[in-house]
């Protein structure tokens, strides 16, 4: 039987200093951290520096 679930689970490990930056950027975008990471990866924009 083929699963009809259209979502895949992705697990990542994030350094504590990067997590704070990611949380801040996700909050600005109004999305969850996991959604932000997926969108950033799709747009090849995985820069976690605080200057952005």
Would you summarize the structure shown here?
By secondary structure, this protein is mainly alpha-helical.
Notes on the structure:
There is one protein chain. The protein is mainly α. It has a domain at 15-47. The protein has helices spanning 16-29, 33-42. The longest helix is centred in the middle third of the chain and has 14 residues, at 16-29. The chain is globular, with a radius of gyration of 13 Å. The model has no long low-confidence stretch (mean pLDDT 80).
Instruction: Please compute the radius of gyration using only Cα atoms.
Output: 13 Å
What is the rounded distance between the termini? 46 Å
The structural class is mainly alpha
Spans of at least 5 consecutive residues with low confidence: none
The helix content is 40-55%
Q: How much strand content do the residues show?
A: under 5%
> Main β-sheet, in a few words?
none
Average pLDDT over all residues:
80
Q: Give the total of beta strands.
A: 0
Helical region count?
A: 2
Task: Map the helices and strands.
Layout: H1 16-29, H2 33-42
Helix pairs in contact: 1-2
Task: Name its key features.
single chain, 52 residues, mainly alpha, 2 helices, 46% helix, 0% strand
